[in-house]
Write a structure and sequence with these properties.
The protein is mainly alpha-helical. It has one domain. The chain has a two-stranded antiparallel sheet. 45% of the residues are buried.
Length: 293
């Protein structure tokens, strides 16, 4: 397995967890949540700050996830309680998180070279050491996917899926749609925060601008995953989303490897996203497929 393929898979699994969060907000809740552009670096900031203080790197992942949950709750509060538009609520929280992330770390960049990470669980000398990043990221991505699948089968998960499609149904079940939306946004941003923490520990650095374009990237993966794989009924939609991110990262890598400069990455992302939307429109014309494929 070549180093390029391993790198694609590693990034696919890291950002795939983020894409699962965007799947919840975009596909299930029908909520354009731009909070994620701030939540991703928030998870990275929490992880970097705590690892630097000597906190167990696994606990750092939990803390980063919890921070993402809080950010999602704040977005939900602004939208539900203060009646601020969904898009604007996310923008406000995202903007505020920029300063918070800077405060947490104390600088726009922080390097973790020489500090412990979750990947140290496979020590040097172990035959799997060379593939430790890929193995651990794969295990975490699968675990998150399974937990999300199990949650969506619960009563709370059913209500979450219902509130985006038929809010009136939730009301008839004597449930508060606003509360369900807050729960959904909390889970979504918690996953994004976890993704940011994994990214930080994998790259051994924190970059305050690492969340730029997170929403676009996640949307592209969600659209690819729910469009390309929707006819494969043996695949869960969550699996398709993660595979969609792997495909997305592969396309970006191929485009950059073809001779484009790194400064052209944003242009490639934009064009790929437009092609993804076009593909979605073309494949969706005959009839709407089931998302549970």
């Amino acid at each position: 397995m070549s180093g390029i393929l391993i790198g694609i898979l590693e990034q696919g699994f890291i950002y795939g967890i983020m894409a699962l969060g965007i799947y919840i907000s975009y596909k299930i809740l029908d909520f354009p949540d731009l909070t994620v552009d701030g939540t991703f670096p928030l998870g990275a900031a929490i992880s970097a700050a705590l690892v630097t203080l000597g906190v167990n790197p696994w606990l750092c992942l939990i803390a980063a996830t919890a921070a993402g949950v809080i950010a999602g709750c704040i977005t939900g509060f602004l939208h539900i309680k203060l009646r601020i538009k969904d898009l604007l609520s996310g923008i406000l929280v995202m903007t505020g998180l920029y300063s918070i992330n800077y405060r947490i770390v104390g600088s726009p960049n922080e390097f973790l070279m020489g500090l412990p990470t979750i990947f140290d669980i496979i020590p040097e000398g172990n035959p799997l050491h060379a593939y430790r990043y890929l193995i651990i990221l794969l295990i975490i991505a699968i675990a998150v996917k399974i937990l999300l699948d199990l949650y969506l089968k619960t009563k709370s998960g059913f209500l979450l899926k219902s509130v985006g499609d038929n809010e009136g149904l939730v009301v008839t079940l004597a449930q508060n749609p606003g509360k369900i939306k807050v729960i959904g946004l909390a889970i979504a941003n918690g996953l994004v925060g976890l993704s940011g923490a994994l990214y930080c520990q994998r790259t051994m650095q924190f970059d305050i601008s690492s969340g730029t374009g997170t929403m676009v990237m996640g949307l592209a993966a969600v659209i690819i995953g729910t469009t390309v794989f929707k006819k494969l009924r043996f695949l869960k939609v969550t699996t398709g989303v993660i595979l969609g991110m792997v495909i997305y990262k592969a396309c970006i890598t191929i485009a950059i490897s073809s001779g484009l400069q790194s400064s052209d990455t944003k242009l490639v992302v934009t064009l790929l996203f437009l092609l993804t939307l076009l593909l979605n429109n073309v494949l969706s014309k005959p009839k709407g497929g089931s998302e549970n494929a």
